[in-house]
Design goal:
417 residues, alpha/beta, Rossmann fold, Dehydroquinate synthase-like, alpha domain, 2 domains, six-stranded parallel β-sheet, 11% strand, globular
Length: 417
């Protein structure tokens, strides 16, 4: 008998999570253990930022305010903040806001100790690839960062990912150095977040678990059980919130479950590039001018239908059926797909796409960022991508006839990663 060993995997999360009502009260004490001069990165629309900053002042921590006013923070803006923070001798970085603020805080904390990591002239940034994944050689531990999210779903406060734009293209930087030292989950900071946005974040966290499970061909009992338990918890809390329970308690439960999707073993041992729906909708969202979750919600039923049809590039129907058994009490993959996709309408999530989108242009952009034989969208051709986007757009009454192709925007001369 031949025994096939499972691939080795490792797991490490250096982020301490402090969660609960009033958790922000500990901010000053926690930050003072890490430094005396803080860069305070926040969003200009947050009226409670001064109140949070006062926790640092009471702990005798000097703060330098950094307001993130770009809708899509740029590499240039982060480098400018690094220069300001370096001049101020900052020794700890705090982030208070949504995913973009937390991403900027993480990037600055890493860049202050590793200027080359954010060098716009470096090979990682000057190509059409969507991913920036620097190696570990010569990199120093970053400054400690403390992150307080005011939104739900991205779990930027605990992950090792930063999204920045460079030369008009969205780049995803991935490195263990980007993980925060401390994340504070306090429901007071999500109390005014509209229920629709909370539900959108809930579905985002669910898809972060569900899609990699579907693209993993073989059962992994421990990891599957963890993923399904979190999925069930997120589904139950989402249904409660959609039914009118918008209390702090529900919001905190969703925040903890979302963070747990990236701080336990639910995703270990799976392909780290297994969230193919994310790669398929990243450039769609950018070109359509909609949020990432609006694009995901628009594409979700079409993605799942291809899983059900047996197209293994999108996932395995048997794994979708396992998910359906635990979440929707069905072992039929098609019924499971319908039940999962129906959350978009049942939760009244935004999923419309603007008119006059060109599937060829979207496919060309996705091909540049994530295709060309790289492992993010394996076995996809540019024509396959165009056909997928044409199907998605057709559901919104848009013509699937592509625009003039003489201006192909795909300028991909680099070799695959």
């Amino acid at each position: 008998m031949v025994v096939t060993a499972s691939p080795a995997w490792s797991w490490h999360s250096p982020t301490q999570v402090l969660a609960g009502h009033g958790a922000t009260e500990a901010l000053g004490t926690k930050v003072r253990q890490l430094g005396r001069t803080a860069l305070f990165v926040t969003d200009p629309a947050l009226e409670t930022a001064d109140e949070v900053r006062q926790h640092l002042a009471r702990a005798q921590i000097r703060t330098h305010l950094a307001v993130v006013d770009e809708p899509h923070p740029s590499l240039a803006a982060v480098n400018l903040l690094c220069r300001t923070a370096r001049s101020a001798r900052v020794d700890v970085v705090t982030g208070f806001g949504g995913g973009r603020c937390l991403d900027v805080a993480k990037a600055v904390a890493a860049g202050l100790r590793n200027p080359g990591l954010l060098d716009p002239a470096g090979d990682n940034w000057n190509n059409s690839h969507g991913l920036v994944a620097p190696g570990h050689h010569g990199l120093r531990p970053c400054l400690p960062s403390v992150l307080i999210p005011t939104t739900l779903g991205t779990s930027s406060e605990v992950n090792a990912v930063v999204s920045l734009t460079h030369q008009s293209r969205k780049k995803l930087m991935l490195h263990g150095l980007l993980r925060a030292r401390l994340a504070i989950l306090d429901p007071v900071h999500t109390r005014t977040l509209p229920p629709q946005l909370v539900l959108s974040g809930t579905l985002e966290a669910m898809l972060r678990l569900a899609v990699p499970m579907m693209t993993s061909p073989h059962p992994a009992p421990l990891e599957d059980d963890l993923a399904l338990a979190l999925l069930g918890r997120l589904l139950n809390e989402g249904e409660s919130l959609a039914s009118g329970d918008t209390t702090d308690t529900i919001r905190l439960r969703i925040a903890k479950a979302s963070a747990a999707t990236q701080t336990n073993w639910a995703l270990t041992g799976r392909d780290p590039r297994g969230h193919r729906l994310w790669y398929l909708t990243n450039d769609l969202a950018a070109l359509a001018g909609v949020s990432k979750m609006s694009a995901m919600a628009a594409a979700l039923p079409h993605y799942l239908s291809r899983v059900v049809s047996g197209d293994l590039r999108y996932g395995h129907a048997s794994r979708l059926a396992e998910l359906g058994h635990r979440l929707f009490h069905t072992t039929d993959a098609a019924t499971a797909a319908d039940s999962l996709a129906s959350l978009v309408s049942r939760w009244s999530l935004p999923h419309d796409l603007p008119p006059a989108l060109d599937p060829h242009a979207i496919a060309a952009s996705t091909w540049c960022s994530w295709g060309q034989g790289r492992p993010y969208l394996p076995d996809f051709t540019e024509a396959d991508l165009e056909e997928f986007y044409a199907t998605v757009l057709a559901a919104f009454g848009q013509s699937t006839v592509c625009a003039d192709r003489s201006g192909n925007i795909c300028c991909c001369s680099e070799q695959p990663l």
